[in-house]
Structures are given as structure tokens and as C-alpha cells.
Amino acid sequence: MFRIVKAKEFQAECESLRLDGRTIGLVPTMGALHSGHRQLITMARDQCDIVAVSIFVNELQFDNPVDLEKYPRVVDKDLEIASSLGVDLVFTPESADMHPRPTLFHLEVDRLGDILEGASRPGHFAGVATVVAKLFTLAGRCKAYFGEKDFQQLSVISRMVEELHFPVEIVPVPIVRDTSGLAFSSRNLRLDSEQLKSALSLSRALFAARDAIAGGEKDTGKIEELMVRELRREIAGIAQSNQPELDYALVVDPLTLVEPERIDGPVRLLVAARVGGVRLIDNIGV
Ligand code: PAF
User: Fold this and answer.
1) Taking the model in full, what pTM does it have?
2) Which of 47, 68, 149, 223 could pair with 62 as two cysteines, CB 3.0-4.6 Å apart?
């Protein structure tokens, strides 16, 4: 495995690997690699000749400077993990190289960027789209791996690739759950045991809605009510301060993220809630 810091060198290396006939799998990350990233890297390893992982804490996608400052930066540990997973190339650019100052250009994301997660984090998806577009320009023709856990991010990036004609195939990687159904997230580490129990409400609401749809329910409103009920149901034995606080529970079209009037085809069920002050998201395809 080798590490590249300069953007132009990364671009030249990807170009030369492709000229040698190798396929490239790109896994964009902000570091602090966890099991979700392992899943992305493992899938890229199975499908591509070369696995390239980028590690870059992108300031453009943070609306809160404190969050940006607190974001874990553990590059040495990340390099160890990447190497143990058989990664070939790690790209760790400097901020001044990725976003030379003053920056004159950035992407904007209409509609898809302002709803759901974008409503509580203004500018977040514009920042994600801008940095991912730069990474795609540097990596060139490749497959790029994104987790379904951040479903809105996956939708924004898939749409960006289609609309801006990047020569990139987006590979969605399914959510990893533990045996209780809880979706893996680095945020779970911030929850104590009572809050972890409470966090199970999210997947429980999704599974109940999925079962109702499988049982023939086609009314979007009824399915959303069912998820809201599940998320608002007080969990016995859990302190009031640790009960889930609902943000949204929606049925959406998997491509446009618009709510359909009726469920007549594939839909994505999305939920977001705070548990003990930690904002959690989860989703499932039906
Ligand atoms: O999902 C992430 O870690 C980031 O949003 C991404 C895609 C690496 C862009 O900075």
C-alpha cells in the first residue's frame, strides 16, 4: 500500500493504473475508519483490481466549526486498518490542495440538498457534492463505493454523476446491522446502554412499516403514522431523557426522495430521531 498526498500525483497515478488495464475502486472517507468503511473497502476489494481510499476531513460539509474541529483525525490508525484490508492506495490530501483559497467554485444541490438531513444542516450536501466531484475528477473512470446508511448522500451523489456525466459507477453498499437490528454507526459509540436500547426504536419502526407494506398497506400516510407511533411509543424502563425524539419518519421514492401518494412500486423508508442528544438516522428499502 502506498500513500499519496498531492492531488495531481493521485490523478496521475490513477491514470497510469488505468492505462495498465487496472480497474479502480474508490472509497471516499473522512477517516476514523470503522466497520461501515470496512464493508465498503471489502466490496471494492472483491470487485476491483486497485482499491483507493481517500481520507480527507472536508471542511465544506460542516456547518458548525466546533464539529469540524472535534472530528477525529487518526490517520496512522486509518493507514493500519486500510493496509490490513488490502487497500493499494491511500490519498490523504491537504486542505489547501483540495480547496485552494480563495475558492471561487462550488456545486449547489437544488431540492435534494435542502430536504431531510439538508434541512437541519444547511449547505451540507453542497459541501459533500463539491468535494466528491473533485475526488471523481482526480480518480477518473472508476467504481465508487457509498453506504446506504447515508441514503440521502447516496442519492445526491448518484444524481450528480448522472447529471454531470462523471465516468463513475456508484456502488451502493447495504447497511450493516447488529443482531438486534441496530444499524452500525460511529455515533452509536456516543450512546450508553439505556440509550442503545432506545435507539432500537428506529429499526423497529422501519421493520414494522416494511411488514405492513408486505401485508398489502399502500397508503403512504398510514405507513408514516405507523412509524411515528413506533418512534413515539414510550419504552418501558427507559428514563424520559433517553426516550427517542422524532425528527422525521417518511416514505419516499428511492430516486427523487419525494413522498409518493400511494405505495405502488419500490420505496425507501427513512427515519431520523435524537436519542440522548445524538441524532441518529436509519432507512430500509421496500
Ligand atoms: O460520507 C462521508 O464520509 C463524506 O461525506 C464523504 C463522502 C467522504 C465526503 O466528504
Assistant:
1) 0.94
2) 68
